[in-house]
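Lecture 7 notes: from sequence to structure.
We start with the chain below.
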Amino acid sequence: MEGGNQTDTVDAADPHASDDVQELREKLQMAQEELEIVRARLAQQLEQEQLAAAGEAAALAEQLKRAQQTAEAASLEGAEQRRRAEDAASQLDQLARENEELQRRVFETEETARTEVEATRMRLELERLRQLEEVRRQFDKERDRYQREHDQDATLIADLRTLLHDSTTRRPTDGTERELPASSVSVPASAPLHGGVEPCEPTEGSWVGNRSVSFTAGTPGVLDPPVTQADHTVDTSTLTGGPLSLVGVGGVASATDHNVADSAGRNSSCSSSSSGTGDGELIQQLTQLVQTQTAMVAAQTRAMSAQSLPPIPTYSGEGEEGFERWIDQFEERARLAGWTDDLRSYHLKMRLSKNAFQTYRLLPEEVKANYSATVSALKSKFKPIDIEELRGMEFHQVVQKGQSIEQLGLELQKLAKRAFPCLSGKDLDRLLKGRFFQALLPKWQRKLGAPKVEESFDELFNRARVSERREQQYSDLAEERKIKDKPRKTDTDTSRERGSGSSSKTGTGALSPNNDSSSDKPPRKQGQGIQCRACGRYGHIARNCLQRKRQGPEAPGRQESINPKPQDSLQVHSVSDCTDKELEQELSRRRLDKEQKLADVTSPVVNVVTGAIGSVYQLDVSVEGLAVSAIVDTGSQSTIISRALLHKVFAHIRNSGKVPPRLQEPCTKFRGKGGKPHTNYCTGPTYP
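Predicted structure tokens for the same chain:
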């Protein structure tokens, strides 16, 4: 009511004010109408947006569903792949076991085969010895038989020569015919009387024959009837004036049907000359017979000598044996055996093999028909090769490939002795030294350096072997450490504490660029070399310290030392192994020596922290009276510190104006192992 009265009062007092109010009311109504329209539009727009959002939500839900299905399929596929990987691993294990079993069987088979081969070899050797013994016995038997036959032939030849000599010396010289004393002559039944191989054999017995032969008196120098012996008929004629006179004056030499024994004389002969032949022809036949027997005996002797010689090996035309040396042995054997040129050609052909036989087959037929021409052609085909020249080339081409230095040196010494047998002393030593150094690998040449003039081959060889053994020892040591340094599972919080303890909690400096520590190198042993900063003990960190939990956060070990003792700021307590596998072995040896020297000094100040960034050596130092932990790095040329430590340490210097405000320099953001920001560090020259 009061409001209404006031309005009326305003209207009464000022009629124009009522018009304004009315106008305002109209405007307000219009604004309300517009507001309703806007509300309706907004409601419609909101409804549309809600519908669109609902559609998008449905689409997202559908996408999420498909993603879930894809994830489930990927999970199933991953499970299937893991199952396949496990199956493959089991198959590999099975194959490894089968391989081991196969190797064991192969080894057993080789041992069995080696044993069987050895037994077979022994059996064959015994069989060969038995055969050789049998051949030797047969040879001795044949030799004895040949010796007996040789003795018989020699006796026969001697008797024939004696008979021939006596026949020529008993010729009558006074021109009278005298009676020939009956002699006992034994003619073998198998020997012909004329033109045969063997003559009659004179003995001191009776005339022994298949038929009786009689000598009757009559015309001097006539034998009647004809002499028959072993179904061979020989016509006799007058034998006067010859060396073999069988008829004497006034006497008769007769051989009746029975055996006649007469020991009155020895000088007689078997007359087997044909009709019309003289004494000279008979003597010539006897001489030829003696020569034939002598040649047969000599041939038998040569055959026996040839059989006692070792067999001639075949010639293949390969290897180092020359044809001239082989043909000399062949000729000596052929000479002892008495081979003719035809036999030599035959045996030469049978003793050629491989390349030599192929070369022989390609020779012209007219050359192969002549033994001497064949030998000359083969000599021209298989000319002797300069073996020493080839060995010298082999000596100068030797280089170190997969063998060790000791094997290389021994091989060069062996080749030098074969290629240069005339060299000795200093000349051989100088040659070996130069060639040995040239044959070494480049890395050994760099390590050994050029050999000195006064250095001998043995000294250089020993120096190279020592260097190789040293590198092998370092390689074995590095391999052993690599096996010991395999990654092991550690606590996640402990690793995070170790990784951040050098920056966010203790304010340590980061690693310098030339630090050898690896960011992903695991610790050798869990808890080794770790010192608690709350209680000072080893084996755990401050977060897990029970004493700190009992005493509160302000443990004695965490209080900052304003004025540390100088002698405590540069001492080392323990060092963990930190070997870079990519460095050379020589650098590894030097680093190991340096670490060994550091390990000899002990102090409870310097710690080894192993975390996400690897093993680092921390040292408590004093910076402007503030005790901080720094990383030991003797090779760094600049220092990297955190911004918080920089502001904390050098705040009073910056405020005093002694040092220009250089703290606004760009800072570097380092990231940790997991990719998250580690902390911000300002880089630049070290402040005093």
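Points to note: The first helix runs from residue 2 to 13. Strands lie at 185-186, 201-202, 227-229, 232-234, 607-611, 614-623, 626-631, 641-642, 667-671, 677-682.
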